[in-house]
């Protein structure tokens, strides 16, 4: 399948093209404030809030008396429902009334420990790269390609994924930690990222926030099948958006987070850790915007030539090479539509539309036919 990534014409976008870069954005860096937002809610479950208080008390090595424990769990339940974000910022016991100075001191300390505990198990931030399943949506060209003056990159998935370049692969991230399993922890990074399709929904389906807490709190005995179903339901929220974004027909790659329990804290990636180099042979085409200048097109063609020479020189590993297509977007003269027309196939030479071999090679490109190369051997393969 082909995926489309709209880009404005800018030095940053040209650099991404030249060096096969992709940057995983955080939710805060996106134009949709609800992007990648999960809707976890803590309900007024006294039994589970009691477990949260007990877990917090274990951290300060203090046994909360049963009567006080009962009062504190009741006090929290009266403040529910609460989203996970709200709970991590809330001083649960600020209005708890007690005349005993020691009890007041302990309760205040417990409130801080509960906040810290909840922050460890706060649903991890997901970072993502966005693509579209359509190349002719006028709004996409307007919003993400600088009002049709930019361009659109065409990617070919392999087994539903975009692979990373072996020459520039990051193996892991590392952190010095005080609360982790060890003083220094590492988290392995994948060799490829699967494309996930966005599900556009009008309403939000809430998730049980206790299910994101450790087993001591969640305390639900479930089968492996139920556990996998729960995980799939939780992960599905990262692939959901409001229906107003339906026109984007979005698919995205998601950067998996390190498990917070492993590091003993909520981990955020740095910007440099979110910059990756994709397998350059999976970029299989480019579409020039309808308002793009001839000068800008020529600049991109220079980059494509340099890029191909560089790839041929350093790509000494097994890979699948596809034909590279040049397209241009045109504004229909009699409809409010964008029309995408092929121009050339770029190989060792440009194969123009009027060439007798163009239709055959273009058909192979659309069908996912590529040339698998490894050392001195090669063969033609069809990739779904």
Q: What is the radius of gyration computed over CA atoms, rounded to a whole number of angstroms?
A: 26 Å
Q: Considering DSSP H and I runs of 4 or more, what fraction of the residues is helical?
A: 25-40%
Number of domains: 2
Beta content comes to: 25-35%
With helices defined by DSSP (H or I, 4 residues minimum), what is the helix count?
A: 11
Q: What is the end-to-end distance? A: 6 Å
Q: What's the main sheet like?
A: 6 strands, mixed
Which regions contain 5 or more consecutive residues with pLDDT less than 50? none
| Global geometry | elongated
- DSSP E strands, number: 23
Judged by helices, strands and strand pairing, the structural class is alpha+beta
Name the average pLDDT: 89
> How are the strands of the largest sheet arranged?
1-6-17-19-20-21
Describe this structure in words.
The protein has 384 residues and is an alpha+beta fold. The chain folds into two domains: 2-37 and 126-199 and 246-382, no CATH class; 40-120. It has helices at residues 11-19, 46-59, 66-77, 84-88, 101-120, 138-144, 215-218, 224-236, 260-263, 294-314, 358-367; strands spanning 2-7, 21-23, 40-42, 82-83, 127-132, 151-156, 161-163, 172-176, 184-188, 192-194, 196-197, 199-201, 207-208, 240-242, 250-255, 275-277, 283-288, 319-321, 324-331, 338-346, 350-352, 369-374, 377-382. The strands form eight sheets. Strands 1-6-17-19-20-21 form a six-stranded mixed sheet, with helices on one face. Strand 20 (338-346) and strand 21 (350-352) form a beta hairpin. Helix 2 (46-59) packs across helix 5 (101-120).
């Amino acid at each position: 399948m082909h995926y489309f990534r709209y880009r404005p014409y800018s030095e940053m976008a040209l650099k991404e093209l030249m060096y096969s870069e992709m940057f995983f954005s955080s939710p805060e860096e996106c134009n949709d404030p609800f992007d990648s937002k999960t809707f976890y809610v803590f309900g007024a479950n006294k039994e589970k809030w009691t477990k949260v208080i007990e877990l917090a008390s274990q951290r300060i090595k203090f046994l909360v008396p049963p009567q006080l424990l009962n009062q504190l769990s009741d006090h929290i339940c009266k403040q529910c429902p609460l989203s996970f974000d709200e709970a991590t910022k809330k001083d649960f016991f600020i209005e708890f009334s007690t005349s005993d100075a020691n009890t007041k001191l302990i309760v205040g300390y417990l409130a801080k420990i509960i906040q810290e505990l909840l922050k460890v198990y706060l649903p991890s931030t997901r970072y993502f790269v966005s693509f579209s399943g359509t190349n002719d949506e006028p709004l996409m060209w307007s919003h993400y390609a600088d009002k049709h003056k930019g361009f659109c990159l065409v990617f070919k998935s392999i087994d539903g994924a975009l692979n990373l370049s072996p020459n520039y692969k990051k193996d892991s991230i590392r952190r010095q930690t005080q609360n982790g399993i060890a003083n220094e922890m590492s988290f392995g990074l994948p060799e490829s990222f699967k494309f996930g399709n966005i599900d556009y929904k009008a309403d939000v389906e809430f998730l049980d926030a206790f299910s994101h807490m450790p087993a001591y709190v969640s305390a639900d005995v479930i089968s492996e099948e139920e556990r996998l179903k729960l995980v799939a339901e939780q992960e599905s929220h990262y692939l959901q958006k409001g229906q107003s974004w339906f026109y984007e027909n979005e698919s995205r790659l998601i950067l998996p987070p390190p498990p917070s329990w492993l590091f003993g804290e909520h981990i955020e990636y740095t910007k440099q850790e979110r910059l990756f180099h994709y397998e350059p042979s999976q970029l299989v085409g480019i579409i020039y915007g309808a308002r793009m200048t001839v000068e800008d097109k020529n600049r991109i063609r220079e980059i494509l030539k340099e890029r191909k020479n560089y790839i041929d020189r350093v790509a000494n590993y097994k890979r699948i090479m596809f034909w590279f297509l040049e397209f241009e977007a045109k504004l229909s003269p009699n409809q409010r539509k964008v029309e995408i027309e092929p121009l050339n196939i770029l190989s060792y030479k440009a194969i123009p539309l009027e060439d007798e071999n163009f239709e055959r090679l273009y058909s192979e490109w659309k069908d996912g036919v590529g040339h698998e190369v490894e050392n001195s051997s090669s063969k033609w393969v069809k990739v779904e």
